[in-house]
Amino acid sequence: SKHVIKNIPWTTAKNFTVEIGQQQIEELISTWDIHESWLHHSEFLEEEELKDSKRYHYRACWGLPTRRKPIPRATASVYFVIVISKLKPDTAPVEVFYRLESSRLIRRPEQCEFREKWLRDIIENKILCAERL
C-alpha cells in the first residue's frame, strides 16, 4: 500500500497575501503527524524580489515545553518559501518549499512527508553541543 503524502490546496498567485501564506503554512503544519506536546509559532520573515519570481520567506520555530521545563532548552526551526512565478499565469497555485535549519536540503510538501524525528534530531544535537561547551 502506497502511503499518501498529505498536502493542502495552495492559493493562486493572484489571491496570495503574506497573511494567507502564513495561514496556509499553518494549515500544512496541521496535516503533519507530530505529537501534540510539540508547540510552534510561525512568522513572516521577508519578501524577496527576483527576476522570474517573488519569494516570501517564513519560519516555524518548534519546541517541546514540559511542566518541569516550560521553556525548552533548545528549539528547531523550519524555513518555508512561497514562490510566485512571474512567468506562469496568476491563476496558477503558488509553489511551496521548506528546509530544516540544520540542512541545505530543500523539500516540497507534496513530495516528502514531514517527520517529527527531524525536529527531535535538531534539538538533541543542539543540547549535546551546549553540554560540550
From TrEMBL:
Q: Which domain of life is it from?
A: Eukaryota
Q: InterPro entries from the xrefs? A: AKAP, AKAP_28
**Any one GO cellular component localisation term in the record:** cAMP-dependent protein kinase complex
Gene Ontology terms, MF aspect:
protein kinase A regulatory subunit binding
Query: What does UniProt give as the signal peptide span?
Result: none
Family annotation (Pfam families): AKAP28
Q: PANTHER family recorded for this chain?
A: A-KINASE ANCHOR PROTEIN 14
This chain's protein is named AKA14 protein
Q: Which organism is it from?
A: Nesospiza acunhae
